[in-house]
Specification:
- The chain contains ten helices and 19 strands.
- It is globular and about 90 Å long.
- The protein starts with a helix and ends with a strand.
- The model has no long low-confidence stretch (mean pLDDT 90).
Length: 511
């Protein structure tokens, strides 16, 4: 056997040893806890350590597919490291085992630092590495026997090595069984979610008028479906929360700590409201924004039970996965703002990926400082004493949503026929409201667009401009004015550190 072929088979042995290591770790993670899974733990650690500009780049590039992209990248890194493990161990032992152990250390640290971690969470990574080193040794020993075998025994030694590959395949099968068990756990929670019967709202959402939604092909629906609602969060795997054990605690600078279970929450007089939520990472013209009808209990009433102390000015909400958001206390205490501890979305219990069993919905603030999913704790504190997840990474503390507008149709690069063309889209200025939208063509005079009826100041608003389009290539721009008379700035500002600004523009070809 040539030296080149030996290195190739050694690399394969390293990759298969790594796969077995992962398989064992994943099986143990089913018992120890889903958060101890090495792949998910390392992925979550990567999310935590990523600087804001990396987060912006990934979201801009992949949008709501950012987590899939991260898992693909992690998979590629694992394959490359595994190949290196095999080659190093074959050429310069024990360097391959050392590299494998170092990877195990990183995975153990990642697992141990996850929210809710126990000392047992390092066990899957540790045991996985131990088994991986054993598999690597056996595999390379059999490869050495094959490589140095005489013609009489070469077939036997080759068979023994290929049997090793079969063992790894068996390990992959175990991973499949373990993954099925994990999915079954998710399915059990999903079934439990489906069994939840939400009460009718004590205060229903105001009726949406027929004039609130324009009948224009291609325009974004006024109410986003649960399936199409954007999802941006730090959870690499959706947390699995059992409603029978879930509870919300209000602690910190309060006269009285409060604790409420899910069953108790459903017995309260719930409020239903349409509220538009937006991600701070949304670029000008982006789609990281959605509008839904939420059902929940007013947060100002919950805080009244706890009676915050006078010096408090912030509520640090905490998710079960460790994410935190800093929301101004005065916003949550304002009875004129429909801030909710939400349990329902568009007439059904919250979807798992959108925070089941409970999340925060706060009109007028970007999600990173308000819309905590899978919420379990509200800590009444101060901005001086506590720093939230994204504030620690350089984003602003308060995060009020900026006035923005977007052209949905025609899309950028579209070809349309000359004549009357509907230029239409959405505009928003949550908790302030939109009073006007204007469109201009080829940097000409701004023309007023027709506004659909508003739902409320807390939701986006559809608009349309009827354009007599001449042939040629044209630049279309839009800007909005809020109910206080403030018009969008033309200056292009990136999302960091407190939200994007600028006029959305599209280029279309008229034929």
């Amino acid at each position: 056997m040539s030296a080149r072929r030996r290195y190739q088979w050694a690399a394969v042995a390293g990759m298969l040893a790594a796969l077995v290591s992962l398989a064992v770790a994943e099986v143990l993670a089913v018992v120890v806890g889903a958060g101890s899974s090495p792949m998910f733990a390392v992925g979550s650690l990567a999310i935590d350590l990523a600087p804001p500009w990396v987060k912006d780049f990934v979201i801009a590039l992949f949008g709501t597919g950012d987590k899939i992209a991260l898992l693909v990248v992690l998979g590629i890194v694992v394959v490359l490291l595994a190949l290196a493990v095999g080659v190093l161990q074959w050429r310069r032992p024990p360097l391959g085992n050392v590299l494998l152990v170092l990877v195990g250390v990183v995975a153990s640290v990642a697992a141990a630092t996850r929210a809710g971690a126990t000392p047992w969470w390092i066990v899957p990574s540790v045991i996985g590495v131990i088994v991986g080193t054993v598999v690597l040794r056996i595999g390379l020993d059999r490869l050495a026997d094959w490589a140095d075998s005489d013609p009489i025994h070469v077939a036997i030694d080759r068979r023994r090595f290929l049997t090793m590959l079969g063992m790894t395949a068996a390990g992959a099968l175990v991973v499949g069984v373990a993954a099925r068990a994990y999915n079954s756990a998710n399915a059990a929670i999903a079934t439990l979610r489906d069994s939840v019967k939400l009460p009718k709202p004590a205060t229903p959402a105001p009726q949406i008028s027929a004039g609130a939604e324009l009948d224009i092909p291609g325009i974004t629906p006024l109410i986003s479906s649960n399936e199409s609602f954007y999802r941006i969060d730090t959870a690499l795997q959706v947390p699995v929360v059992d409603v029978s054990t879930w509870k919300l605690r209000i602690i910190g600078l309060v006269e009285r700590e409060v604790e409420i279970t899910f069953d108790e929450l459903l017995t309260l007089p719930l409020t239903e409201r349409a509220v538009t939520l937006a991600c701070v990472s949304n670029e000008v013209g982006g789609n990281l924004i959605g509008n839904a009808i939420w059902l929940g209990y007013p947060l100002h009433k919950l805080l009244e039970r706890a009676r915050p102390l006078p010096r408090a000015d912030m509520v640090l909400s905490r998710s079960i996965d460790g994410f935190t958001a800093s929301t101004p206390l005065e916003v949550l205490q304002d009875p004129r703002r429909d801030s909710l501890l939400a349990v329902g979305m568009n007439g059904e219990p919250l979807p798992l990926e959108h925070g089941f069993p409970a999340r925060l919905v706060v009109p007028g603030l970007y999600g990173y400082v308000s819309a905590t999913k899978w919420v379990t704790e509200l800590k009444v504190t101060t901005f001086a004493e506590d720093i939230a997840y994204w504030s620690y990474r350089g984003w602003s503390d308060h995060g009020p949503i900026k006035t923005e507008s977007r052209i949905d149709v025609p899309a950028s690069g579209a070809r349309v026929r000359a004549g009357r063309v509907a230029v239409a889209g959405m505009a928003w200025s949550q908790h302030t409201g939109i009073s006007a939208v204007e469109v201009r063509i080829d940097r000409g005079v701004w023309q007023p667009a027709r506004l659909a009826d508003p739902i409320s100041a807390d939701t986006w608003r559809q608009w349309v401009y009827e354009w007599d389009a001449p042939r040629g290539s044209h630049l279309l721009e839009v800007r909005a004015t809020d109910s206080l008379g403030q018009t969008q700035s033309a200056t292009q500002v990136p999302p960091a550190p407190n939200g994007a600004e600028g006029w959305h523009a599209v280029t279309v070809a008229v034929e």
